[in-house]
Design goal:
- The protein is mainly alpha-helical.
- It contains 13 helices and six strands.
- The longest helix is centred in the N-terminal third of the chain and has 28 residues.
Protein backbone atom coordinates (compact mmCIF):
# COMPACT_ATOMS: atom_id res chain seq x y z
CA UNK A 1 0.00 0.00 0.00
CA UNK A 2 3.00 2.30 0.39
CA UNK A 3 2.98 3.40 -3.27
CA UNK A 4 -0.70 4.33 -2.90
CA UNK A 5 0.06 6.55 0.09
CA UNK A 6 2.96 8.18 -1.76
CA UNK A 7 0.87 8.75 -4.88
CA UNK A 8 -1.98 10.36 -2.92
CA UNK A 9 0.50 12.60 -1.09
CA UNK A 10 2.50 13.64 -4.17
CA UNK A 11 -0.51 14.36 -6.39
CA UNK A 12 -2.30 16.32 -3.65
CA UNK A 13 0.85 18.35 -2.93
CA UNK A 14 1.47 19.19 -6.59
CA UNK A 15 -2.16 20.11 -7.40
CA UNK A 16 -2.54 22.21 -4.25
CA UNK A 17 0.72 24.03 -4.94
CA UNK A 18 -0.09 24.60 -8.62
CA UNK A 19 -3.69 25.78 -8.15
CA UNK A 20 -3.09 28.23 -5.30
CA UNK A 21 -2.27 31.11 -7.73
CA UNK A 22 -5.55 30.32 -9.51
CA UNK A 23 -7.42 30.43 -6.19
CA UNK A 24 -5.77 33.77 -5.48
CA UNK A 25 -6.91 35.11 -8.86
CA UNK A 26 -10.49 33.87 -8.29
CA UNK A 27 -10.61 35.47 -4.85
CA UNK A 28 -9.60 38.83 -6.30
CA UNK A 29 -11.98 38.51 -9.25
CA UNK A 30 -14.99 37.79 -7.02
CA UNK A 31 -13.84 40.23 -4.32
CA UNK A 32 -13.36 37.57 -1.64
CA UNK A 33 -10.77 39.43 0.37
CA UNK A 34 -9.84 39.89 4.01
CA UNK A 35 -9.45 43.53 4.96
CA UNK A 36 -7.32 44.64 7.93
CA UNK A 37 -9.15 45.84 11.04
CA UNK A 38 -8.59 46.31 14.75
CA UNK A 39 -8.75 42.62 15.69
CA UNK A 40 -6.71 41.23 12.78
CA UNK A 41 -2.95 40.89 12.54
CA UNK A 42 -2.35 41.38 8.81
CA UNK A 43 -1.85 44.92 7.56
CA UNK A 44 -2.85 44.59 3.92
CA UNK A 45 -5.75 43.22 1.90
CA UNK A 46 -5.50 39.44 1.43
CA UNK A 47 -7.38 37.04 -0.88
CA UNK A 48 -9.05 34.34 1.21
CA UNK A 49 -10.18 31.52 -1.06
CA UNK A 50 -7.07 29.38 -0.53
CA UNK A 51 -9.38 26.57 0.52
CA UNK A 52 -10.04 26.01 -3.19
CA UNK A 53 -6.49 24.78 -3.80
CA UNK A 54 -6.52 22.62 -0.64
CA UNK A 55 -9.80 21.01 -1.68
CA UNK A 56 -8.69 20.45 -5.29
CA UNK A 57 -5.39 18.97 -4.16
CA UNK A 58 -7.06 16.58 -1.73
CA UNK A 59 -9.82 15.46 -4.11
CA UNK A 60 -7.42 14.95 -7.02
CA UNK A 61 -5.06 12.98 -4.78
CA UNK A 62 -7.92 10.59 -3.92
CA UNK A 63 -9.54 10.35 -7.36
CA UNK A 64 -6.28 9.46 -9.11
CA UNK A 65 -6.08 6.31 -6.97
CA UNK A 66 -9.07 4.81 -8.77
CA UNK A 67 -6.58 3.78 -11.47
CA UNK A 68 -4.93 1.41 -8.95
CA UNK A 69 -6.48 -2.08 -8.76
CA UNK A 70 -5.42 -2.42 -5.11
CA UNK A 71 -7.36 0.70 -4.19
CA UNK A 72 -10.43 -0.61 -6.00
CA UNK A 73 -10.08 -3.90 -4.10
CA UNK A 74 -10.02 -1.97 -0.82
CA UNK A 75 -13.17 -0.07 -1.76
CA UNK A 76 -14.93 -3.32 -2.71
CA UNK A 77 -14.75 -4.63 0.87
CA UNK A 78 -18.13 -5.32 2.51
CA UNK A 79 -18.88 -6.15 6.14
CA UNK A 80 -22.17 -7.46 7.54
CA UNK A 81 -23.23 -5.73 10.74
CA UNK A 82 -25.19 -7.86 13.21
CA UNK A 83 -27.06 -6.57 16.29
CA UNK A 84 -28.48 -9.22 18.65
CA UNK A 85 -27.76 -11.85 15.99
CA UNK A 86 -29.87 -9.97 13.45
CA UNK A 87 -28.47 -8.42 10.29
CA UNK A 88 -28.52 -4.65 10.84
CA UNK A 89 -26.92 -3.68 7.55
CA UNK A 90 -23.85 -3.93 5.34
CA UNK A 91 -20.92 -1.57 5.88
CA UNK A 92 -18.78 -0.87 2.81
CA UNK A 93 -15.51 1.00 2.51
CA UNK A 94 -16.50 2.73 -0.72
CA UNK A 95 -19.70 3.98 0.94
CA UNK A 96 -17.69 5.42 3.83
CA UNK A 97 -15.33 7.14 1.39
CA UNK A 98 -18.28 8.55 -0.56
CA UNK A 99 -19.84 9.88 2.63
CA UNK A 100 -16.61 11.59 3.68
CA UNK A 101 -16.03 13.14 0.24
CA UNK A 102 -19.63 14.35 -0.05
CA UNK A 103 -19.63 15.72 3.49
CA UNK A 104 -16.30 17.44 2.95
CA UNK A 105 -17.55 18.96 -0.29
CA UNK A 106 -20.65 20.41 1.37
CA UNK A 107 -18.54 21.90 4.18
CA UNK A 108 -16.12 23.31 1.60
CA UNK A 109 -18.99 24.97 -0.33
CA UNK A 110 -20.40 26.34 2.93
CA UNK A 111 -16.99 27.85 3.60
CA UNK A 112 -16.88 29.44 0.14
CA UNK A 113 -20.15 31.26 0.82
CA UNK A 114 -18.99 32.19 4.32
CA UNK A 115 -15.81 33.71 2.90
CA UNK A 116 -17.75 35.70 0.31
CA UNK A 117 -20.62 36.82 2.53
CA UNK A 118 -20.59 35.85 6.20
CA UNK A 119 -23.05 33.05 6.98
CA UNK A 120 -24.93 33.50 10.30
CA UNK A 121 -23.43 31.27 13.05
CA UNK A 122 -26.76 29.50 13.68
CA UNK A 123 -27.16 28.61 10.00
CA UNK A 124 -23.56 27.44 9.82
CA UNK A 125 -24.00 25.29 12.93
CA UNK A 126 -27.20 23.70 11.60
CA UNK A 127 -25.53 22.84 8.30
CA UNK A 128 -22.61 21.28 10.19
CA UNK A 129 -25.08 19.10 12.14
CA UNK A 130 -26.85 18.04 8.94
CA UNK A 131 -23.54 17.15 7.31
CA UNK A 132 -22.46 15.16 10.37
CA UNK A 133 -25.76 13.24 10.35
CA UNK A 134 -25.45 12.53 6.62
CA UNK A 135 -21.91 11.22 7.08
CA UNK A 136 -23.14 8.95 9.88
CA UNK A 137 -25.69 7.49 7.46
CA UNK A 138 -22.75 6.42 5.28
CA UNK A 139 -21.30 4.40 8.15
CA UNK A 140 -18.81 6.96 9.48
CA UNK A 141 -19.55 6.91 13.19
CA UNK A 142 -18.04 6.24 16.61
CA UNK A 143 -19.87 2.98 17.27
CA UNK A 144 -18.10 2.10 20.52
CA UNK A 145 -14.86 1.62 22.42
CA UNK A 146 -13.02 -1.03 24.39
CA UNK A 147 -13.14 0.55 27.84
CA UNK A 148 -11.37 -0.65 31.00
CA UNK A 149 -13.25 -3.25 33.05
CA UNK A 150 -15.22 -4.36 29.99
CA UNK A 151 -14.15 -7.68 28.50
CA UNK A 152 -15.73 -7.12 25.11
CA UNK A 153 -15.93 -4.19 22.75
CA UNK A 154 -18.59 -1.84 24.14
CA UNK A 155 -21.06 -0.86 21.45
CA UNK A 156 -22.86 2.43 22.04
CA UNK A 157 -26.64 2.70 21.58
CA UNK A 158 -27.48 4.23 18.20
CA UNK A 159 -28.58 7.60 19.58
CA UNK A 160 -25.50 7.93 21.81
CA UNK A 161 -23.25 6.95 18.92
CA UNK A 162 -24.80 9.64 16.73
CA UNK A 163 -24.54 12.34 19.41
CA UNK A 164 -20.88 11.57 20.13
CA UNK A 165 -19.99 11.51 16.43
CA UNK A 166 -21.78 14.81 15.74
CA UNK A 167 -19.99 16.58 18.59
CA UNK A 168 -16.68 15.04 17.51
CA UNK A 169 -16.95 16.23 13.90
CA UNK A 170 -18.27 19.69 14.77
CA UNK A 171 -15.58 20.05 17.42
CA UNK A 172 -12.80 19.39 14.91
CA UNK A 173 -14.35 21.70 12.29
CA UNK A 174 -14.59 24.67 14.62
CA UNK A 175 -11.27 24.05 16.37
CA UNK A 176 -9.26 24.30 13.15
CA UNK A 177 -11.38 27.24 12.03
CA UNK A 178 -10.73 29.17 15.25
CA UNK A 179 -6.96 28.64 15.29
CA UNK A 180 -6.55 29.96 11.74
CA UNK A 181 -5.20 33.29 12.94
CA UNK A 182 -1.58 33.39 11.79
CA UNK A 183 0.09 32.80 8.43
CA UNK A 184 0.71 29.10 7.96
CA UNK A 185 -0.58 28.12 11.40
CA UNK A 186 -3.66 26.03 10.55
CA UNK A 187 -2.20 24.48 7.38
CA UNK A 188 1.01 23.53 9.19
CA UNK A 189 -0.72 22.10 12.26
CA UNK A 190 -3.10 20.04 10.11
CA UNK A 191 -0.20 18.77 7.99
CA UNK A 192 1.53 17.56 11.17
CA UNK A 193 -1.71 16.07 12.54
CA UNK A 194 -2.53 14.29 9.26
CA UNK A 195 1.02 12.89 9.08
CA UNK A 196 0.68 11.63 12.65
CA UNK A 197 -2.68 10.00 11.93
CA UNK A 198 -1.07 8.40 8.87
CA UNK A 199 1.70 6.83 10.97
CA UNK A 200 -0.78 5.68 13.64
CA UNK A 201 -3.09 4.16 11.03
CA UNK A 202 -0.21 2.29 9.35
CA UNK A 203 1.01 0.98 12.73
CA UNK A 204 -2.45 -0.34 13.51
CA UNK A 205 -3.51 -1.56 10.07
CA UNK A 206 -2.29 -5.16 10.49
CA UNK A 207 -5.03 -5.85 13.06
CA UNK A 208 -6.75 -9.22 12.92
CA UNK A 209 -10.12 -7.44 12.84
CA UNK A 210 -10.55 -7.23 9.07
CA UNK A 211 -13.08 -4.37 9.09
CA UNK A 212 -10.83 -2.20 11.25
CA UNK A 213 -7.83 -3.08 9.09
CA UNK A 214 -9.62 -1.90 5.94
CA UNK A 215 -10.86 1.28 7.61
CA UNK A 216 -7.39 2.07 8.89
CA UNK A 217 -5.95 1.68 5.39
CA UNK A 218 -8.58 4.05 4.01
CA UNK A 219 -7.80 6.49 6.84
CA UNK A 220 -4.09 6.32 5.99
CA UNK A 221 -4.81 7.14 2.33
CA UNK A 222 -6.96 10.11 3.30
CA UNK A 223 -4.23 11.30 5.68
CA UNK A 224 -1.59 11.14 2.95
CA UNK A 225 -3.72 13.23 0.58
CA UNK A 226 -4.62 15.71 3.32
CA UNK A 227 -0.98 16.19 4.38
CA UNK A 228 0.07 16.72 0.76
CA UNK A 229 -2.69 19.28 0.12
CA UNK A 230 -1.73 21.23 3.26
CA UNK A 231 1.99 21.29 2.45
CA UNK A 232 1.37 22.37 -1.14
CA UNK A 233 -0.71 25.28 0.11
CA UNK A 234 1.66 26.07 2.98
CA UNK A 235 4.32 27.25 0.52
CA UNK A 236 2.03 30.16 -0.39
CA UNK A 237 0.54 30.60 3.07
CA UNK A 238 3.63 30.72 5.31
CA UNK A 239 4.58 34.17 6.61
CA UNK A 240 4.43 36.50 4.81
CA UNK A 241 1.34 34.87 3.33
CA UNK A 242 0.22 35.55 -0.21
CA UNK A 243 -3.24 34.10 0.41
CA UNK A 244 -5.45 32.92 3.31
CA UNK A 245 -7.26 29.58 3.30
CA UNK A 246 -10.48 31.15 4.61
CA UNK A 247 -13.35 29.20 6.16
CA UNK A 248 -13.55 27.07 3.00
CA UNK A 249 -10.13 25.70 3.88
CA UNK A 250 -10.19 25.64 7.68
CA UNK A 251 -13.61 24.03 8.05
CA UNK A 252 -12.83 21.49 5.34
CA UNK A 253 -9.54 20.57 7.04
CA UNK A 254 -11.27 20.28 10.41
CA UNK A 255 -14.00 18.07 8.99
CA UNK A 256 -11.50 15.81 7.29
CA UNK A 257 -9.38 15.41 10.44
CA UNK A 258 -12.48 14.57 12.44
CA UNK A 259 -13.78 12.06 9.89
CA UNK A 260 -10.38 10.44 9.45
CA UNK A 261 -9.97 9.97 13.20
CA UNK A 262 -13.43 8.36 13.37
CA UNK A 263 -12.59 5.67 10.82
CA UNK A 264 -8.91 5.56 11.75
CA UNK A 265 -7.36 6.21 15.13
CA UNK A 266 -10.60 5.57 17.03
CA UNK A 267 -10.77 2.03 15.61
CA UNK A 268 -8.11 0.78 17.97
CA UNK A 269 -9.52 -1.58 20.58
CA UNK A 270 -7.79 0.27 23.41
CA UNK A 271 -9.30 3.18 25.30
CA UNK A 272 -6.08 5.08 24.60
CA UNK A 273 -7.52 5.57 21.10
CA UNK A 274 -9.44 8.52 22.44
CA UNK A 275 -6.24 10.26 23.43
CA UNK A 276 -4.43 9.87 20.10
CA UNK A 277 -6.37 12.43 18.01
CA UNK A 278 -6.96 14.65 21.04
CA UNK A 279 -3.26 14.66 21.92
CA UNK A 280 -2.28 15.74 18.40
CA UNK A 281 -4.58 18.77 18.44
CA UNK A 282 -4.32 19.37 22.21
CA UNK A 283 -2.90 22.88 21.90
CA UNK A 284 -5.61 24.29 19.58
CA UNK A 285 -8.30 22.45 21.56
CA UNK A 286 -7.15 24.02 24.84
CA UNK A 287 -6.80 27.42 23.17
CA UNK A 288 -10.37 27.22 21.86
CA UNK A 289 -11.72 25.91 25.18
CA UNK A 290 -10.17 28.80 27.11
CA UNK A 291 -11.45 31.25 24.48
CA UNK A 292 -15.02 29.99 24.87
CA UNK A 293 -14.74 30.13 28.67
CA UNK A 294 -13.29 33.63 28.51
CA UNK A 295 -16.10 34.89 26.27
CA UNK A 296 -18.76 33.17 28.35
CA UNK A 297 -17.49 34.81 31.55
CA UNK A 298 -17.41 38.23 29.88
CA UNK A 299 -20.92 37.61 28.46
CA UNK A 300 -19.76 37.80 24.84
CA UNK A 301 -20.78 35.68 21.88
CA UNK A 302 -18.69 32.49 22.23
CA UNK A 303 -18.24 32.42 18.44
CA UNK A 304 -17.07 36.03 18.25
CA UNK A 305 -13.48 36.64 17.20
CA UNK A 306 -11.03 38.39 19.50
CA UNK A 307 -7.30 38.98 19.95
CA UNK A 308 -6.78 36.97 23.12
CA UNK A 309 -5.79 33.62 21.68
CA UNK A 310 -2.48 32.02 22.66
CA UNK A 311 -0.70 33.40 19.59
CA UNK A 312 -2.11 36.90 20.15
CA UNK A 313 -0.75 36.93 23.70
CA UNK A 314 2.71 35.96 22.44
CA UNK A 315 2.58 38.74 19.86
CA UNK A 316 1.73 41.21 22.60
CA UNK A 317 4.84 40.31 24.60
CA UNK A 318 7.19 40.74 21.65
CA UNK A 319 7.32 37.38 19.82
CA UNK A 320 7.50 37.63 16.03
CA UNK A 321 4.96 36.07 13.69
CA UNK A 322 7.34 33.34 12.50
CA UNK A 323 8.59 32.56 16.00
CA UNK A 324 5.05 31.91 17.26
CA UNK A 325 4.11 29.69 14.33
CA UNK A 326 7.32 27.68 14.61
CA UNK A 327 6.82 27.32 18.37
CA UNK A 328 3.33 25.92 17.83
CA UNK A 329 4.72 23.58 15.15
CA UNK A 330 7.29 22.29 17.65
CA UNK A 331 4.64 21.79 20.36
CA UNK A 332 2.41 19.96 17.88
CA UNK A 333 5.36 17.78 16.79
CA UNK A 334 6.06 16.86 20.42
CA UNK A 335 2.40 16.03 21.09
CA UNK A 336 2.26 14.03 17.86
CA UNK A 337 5.34 12.07 18.91
CA UNK A 338 3.60 11.32 22.22
CA UNK A 339 0.55 10.08 20.31
CA UNK A 340 2.72 7.73 18.26
CA UNK A 341 4.37 6.47 21.46
CA UNK A 342 0.90 5.84 22.92
CA UNK A 343 0.15 3.69 19.90
CA UNK A 344 3.43 1.74 20.08
CA UNK A 345 3.48 1.08 23.81
CA UNK A 346 -0.18 0.15 24.06
CA UNK A 347 0.20 -2.39 21.31
CA UNK A 348 -1.42 -2.65 17.97
CA UNK A 349 -5.10 -3.33 17.43
Amino acid sequence: MNYIYLTAFAVALFVSFATTPIAKWLAKKFDVIDKPDGRKIHLRIMPRWGGISIYLGFITGILCLYFFPRFQTLLAFRHKVFVNNELEGILSIDKQLTGILVGGTVIFILGLFDDKKSVPPVVKFLIQIIVALSVISYGVNISGLNLPFFRNYLNFPLLLSQIITIFWLIGFMNTINLIDGLDGLASGVVAIAASTFLIVAILQSDTKIILFSKQLKLAAILCAALAGACLGFLYHNFHPAKIFMGDSGSQFLGFMLGAISVIGTLKTTAVVALFIPITVVALPVLDVAFSILRRFRSKKNIMAADKEHFHHRLLNIGWTHKEIVLLIYVITFVLSFCAILLTVFNGKV
